[in-house]
Amino acid sequence: MHRAFVTGATGFVGRAVIQALRAEGHVVRCLVRRGSETDLHGFEAIERVEGDILGPVPTLEAEIAGCDTVVHLVGIIREHKTRGITFDRLHHLGTRNVIVAAAAAGARRFLHMSALGTRANARAQYHRTKWAAEEAVRASGLAWTIFRPSVIYGPGDGFLSLLAGMVRRMPIVPVIGDGRQRLQPVPIEHVAAGFARAVRAEASVKQTYTVAGPDAVSMVELLQMIGTVMHRRVRLARVPMGLMRPVARVLHRAPTFPVTPDQLLMLEEDNTGDPTPFYTTFGITPMPLAQGLRQVLG
Asked: Is the dihedral of CA 73, 79, 82, 88 positive or negative?
């Protein structure tokens, strides 16, 4: 029996990973920030400890003690600098903190959530800080595995649900740029299963996996597929990137404004890769995107 310590447990991915870990027979201990306890309502058969990945290392070490695996899922897509929530602090410094505490606590495995597109010379700060976190993981001396997901979808996600809501409510759906950039949405169940099965999969040690669905589609194609599943005609209006950039620079701090300048940089790139090693290593059967959309939206 393995005991897994999970950071980011209260998020969309975290809740699914908890379920997958328990389905694989692992005992789960979750790091929960004060005030977030209700986000794990219904998860009764888990251990909870209150803390923060940026807290003192000795405190984190004590909270991890007795766990042989650390599943590190913490990440943000938007900064709130006035509250100290930045990419560098959460992605890079937070990851380093957890690594030091995990090693001191005697944990052996370190399973790390990164992102597809992460690289040293990335344009977006999100991807650059994810790369810095990866470098810390690779240098840790722990038996690490890195996962780089494309867009993750499932009930309650923050992406597909948003697009479906736009298709449902709006007579004309805005598309930023030309809408040709491709992505490979992946079901949340597959992401969670990969993390849970990696605990015992020795072949995955010191490996980095592209975690993506089998179908690469453009944003325009994805919106049309959503419309087909929902039996709605989708009319699109393209918003030029040259118009969005200056507007985003001015308005991105408003919580209701949909995109930041950093997100626009990521929207200009394809978010694709070869997920074959991921599916093969963890014994998961890829799900066609059309089938996944029917399951979530149908």
From this structure: positive
3-state SS string for 236-272? EEEECHHHHHHHHHHHCCCCCCCCCHHHHHHHCCCEC
Quote the CA–CA distance of 251 and 76 in Å, as a whole number: 19
The CATH number fitting domain 3-156+185-215+272-287, selected from 3.100.10.10, 3.40.50.720, 3.10.290.10, 3.40.640.10: 3.40.50.720
Distance separating the N- and C-terminal Cα atoms of the chain: 38
Sign (positive/negative) of CA torsion 116, 126, 74, 202? Answer: positive
200: closest CA among 69, 9, 112? 69
Which among 207, 275, 266 has a CA at the least distance from the CA of 241?
Answer: 266
Q: By three-state DSSP, how is residue 233 classified?
A: coil
Asked whether the beta carbons of 158 and 12 are under 8 A apart, the reply is yes
Give per-10-residue mean pLDDT for the chain (298 aa).
94 96 96 77 83 96 98 94 93 98 98 98 97 98 98 94 95 95 98 98 98 98 98 96 93 86 94 98 98 94
22 vs 7: CA distance, rounded Å: 15
Query: What pTM was computed for the model?
Result: 0.95
Distance CA 284, CA 222 (A): 23
Burial of 25 (0-12, 13-18, 19+ CB in 10 A): exposed
Burial of 76 (0-12, 13-18, 19+ CB in 10 A): middle
- Following DSSP, what letter does each residue of 7-38 receive, concatenated? ESTTSHHHHHHHHHHHHTT-EEEEEE-TT-GG
Q: What are phi and psi of 14, to 5 degrees?
A: -55, -45
Cα gap 74→291, rounded to integer Å:
29
Q: 227 with 49: CB under 8 angstroms?
A: no
